[in-house]
Amino acid sequence: METKATCPYCGVGCGVLIEHDGARITGVRGDPEHPANFGRLCTKGSTLHFTARPETRLLHPELRATKGEARRRVGWDEALDTAAQRFAEVIKEHGSDAVAFYISGQLLTEDYYVFNKLMKGLIGSNNVDTNSRLCMSSAVAAYKQTLGADAPPCSYEDFAETDCLLVAGGNPSYAHPIAFRRIEDAKAARPDMKLIVVDPRRTDTAATADLHLPILPGTDIWLFNAMLNVLLWEGLVDTAFIREHTEGFDALREHVREITPAVAAEVCGVKADDIRTAARWWGEAPRAMSLWCQGLNQSTHGTHNGAALIALSLATGKIGKPGCGPFSMTGQPNAMGGREVGGLANLLSAHRDLSNPEHRAEVARLWGVPDVPEKPGLTAVELFDAMHEGRIKALWIACTNPAQSLPELERVREALARCDFVVLQEAYGNTETAPFADLLLPAATWGEKEGTVTNSERRITHVNRAIPAPGEARADWDIVCDFARRLGPLIGKPEAARMFGYAGPEAIFAEHAQTTRGRDLDITGLSYAVLDGKGPQQWPFPEGASEGRARLYADGRFPTADGKARFVVPTAKLTAERADARYPLRLTTGRLRDQWHGMSRTGKVARLYNHVDEARIELNADDMHLRGLEDGDLVRVKSRRGEIVLRAAASNEIRSGQAFVAMHWGANALNSAGINALTLREFDPYSKQPELKHATVQVEKANLP
Ligand code: SF4
Predict the structure, then answer these.
(1) What global pTM score does this model have?
(2) Which of 15, 166, 172, 272 has the smallest number of Cβ neighbours within 10 A?
């Protein structure tokens, strides 16, 4: 038998056909009908069936009565009654803001929706944030500041239409492989198409580029501003588009007046002529588009990185047309779905803003509750800081591994240890976060649950359940709703039974769709039946529509009060931490081709270690020589926050003075924590996304006993 679903790894959102016998998953192949991949899968997607092994899964709820005790197996009733009791006690004694949910872009949209509704609609706090905060919240803020709404305007089919693709802060060859295959196809079909890659490292993507700009970490704004300077100087801007469809250009023009290619070349560490070439290719191309990812987002000025890049599209009028526009890729499979339901501490359902009283009233009316609290919730880093200070007493984590993935891990682990009651809802019981859980709840995962996901190009896919979940594992939405119905009466909110009495995920999707009526992402024309009949669809898809919309802003109108897009004058800061004598190397982080996130899934597939088989720090040969290091030596990597031991590997992909470690590796025989023992928690003021991409370190030979 074959069941349609999507790959649960990256934001490309490839369609898969799960092969199974009704009890066990036996294989997987790409769905030839899915518009994201047309049957192709990368190494990770094509080995998914090897991750579906019950013996690697969490099968039963486990609970401990007090900290320090071992957890014991319990039934679902005891598990969820205890959770409801403990959360109710905290809420009564310390208030609603003393509890929090920390969820994940791995969850399906229906799961995200009920978590969000439970915290904001029933409990009465906005303390629900997600690991998507670490991945794309700067892109959200940049889109909203410039285009007026969190809506990537492009489609994958634009890769085949563009004459110039500028990839900045992304390595799609590894991180979004099937999207990159489409870029390669486009270049092969039209050799005149220009590919420009901005990345401190000569990645696999950069190696295929017509022009690689190996800028110093954190200097992207200077580069984009200098490109705009050239576009202005050489008359390559679209003055009619700027006049009719934008606001704020005069201020930005003044700002970039002094940022010439020569000035930016000094700051960015690249040739001024290469900046001019990039600007000319962009400006002279009939159709140009940009593609960005974590390299821009994970920065203390990630929002303005995005805004400065978007300004290139607006200044040249290259938006809303085939092969044009600023395109942010999401790292996770359903980060976009989480954004749609407002599953972040500062958002509300259907791209509404928490700070807008009308939006709060609309959502309260839709949910049938008196109000939605005004006070913004705690974002990821703030949340764990608050827990460290004792202000968060009960935390519910779902489908993510903060003890591996958040920056400044020692502090995160201290925070988890100090929290009175930690619930972890997970498919796998052996993550770095699991030891901190007082209650462990087994969740269904890929192939075992039904719902929807939205990929990077706004395309919603109905994913289906192929087999029953193993042991006592349950679907995430089902666990949340059961907990909500038990919690409600304990906190004086019997309406929980009505609010969370869904018959199944389809009913949740239908309610979510109704919240989008009249909004920019209106999907009132979608249902599971429509998605099954027509296939995956891009939003918006309002009632009466016959198909989704591939491209936004074709009419030059933007979802702002006056219909015009905005130019933003960026704050041209550098990285939060500077190299110095004690910490002279600039460490960047990124992805491997064959691993994904914290490896709780890919780490279980032997063949995915064939590409890179262990954690290592890549250093330029000069830096290796300076330290007397040989390939394969064990080295101690120290930052101001912690240290880890890794093997050193010489690399010609990076410049002297820089280092690279893949983000995936967690605790191992040599280390109690992974790469994020070194990273820092400083974050962007608008998006609150931390600067996971950069830290300064020292590397020295490890003399282990
Ligand atoms: Fe999965 Fe992404 Fe690979 Fe597609 S490109 S198969 S979504 S990991």
Answers:
(1) 0.96
(2) 272
